[in-house]
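Lab manual, section 2.4: Encoding a predicted structure.

Procedure: take the sequence of the chain (309 residues), apply the prediction step described in section 2.3, and record the output as structure tokens. A sample record is shown.
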Amino acid sequence: MKMSRPWLTLGVGPALLFGAIVAPLGLFWGDLPNPMASHWDISGTPDGSMPPMVLLLVLAGLYVAIHWAVTRVLARTPSEAPSFIAGLFFLGALLAGVSWLSVLANRNQATWEAADNVGLSQILTAILPAVLIGYLGWQAAGGRSVVRTPSGGSMPALDIGEPTAAIWSGRGAGRILQVVGAVLIVIGLATWSWSTIVLILLGLLVLAFAEVRATVSQRGVVVSLGWLGIPSWTVPMDSISHAEIETVNPMAYGGWGYRLRPGVRAILTRGGGALRLIRDDKADLVLTVDDAVTGAGLINSMLGAGRVE
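Recorded output:
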């Protein structure tokens, strides 16, 4: 599938965001102490510094690296443009917000220790616009207008006779997400600043998507996340057309965790076998759970669909 408006999503848009990252340092270079405050603790007081040139290279270099990585990925999987472009725009706007916050807090100060405090309200002024700009990037890359992704999976069924009492449960866990979630929490606790809250929340969110369980009964399919099974919700059986099995490559979906593709919502904890619920009125749901063949077969037997194994 051809990516929508690459001149905007990979050209003009990122160039403007790159300009927004370097602009404050360029405009107020002579007004900044050297070194300048670059880190604030949980109370908002500056507790770390670096030269302005280093901050410029870190922020600008990071965004150039992100842009390069997204360009490489989309050259192989252009169908993933909406999610990757949204991330590219969001991170660019967030880095621009960090640049402006840092410069304004340090401007006209004699030393980095005298820099203004940076608290939660200032951080929100950087995050909220970044979310909006990320959404605009998603829309510019096609958003909901892209074609629904076909499944291409097989549709088994089980010969189980009367299925009213049949129950099956499958679980899938991913070490990559477990490690990433734990590392984010450890880093957050070690830095102990306003970023601590963000990192811990991100870590908990990643851990929630590091494990998924699907339980099939006559009522429907109960999907639960994380070690505690929270959150949990039910996909009613009468909303399912049929179930399929497929072999998943997480990178084809844009990575691990909760992924959005045209007409598909996926919870990917690992690569390999996955259960795909085909729903006529909603997006398909893909779950990387073990023994997906049995789960799909049981669902199709209850629905009177599929091929008996």
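Check your result against the sample. The first strand starts at residue 36 and ends at 40.
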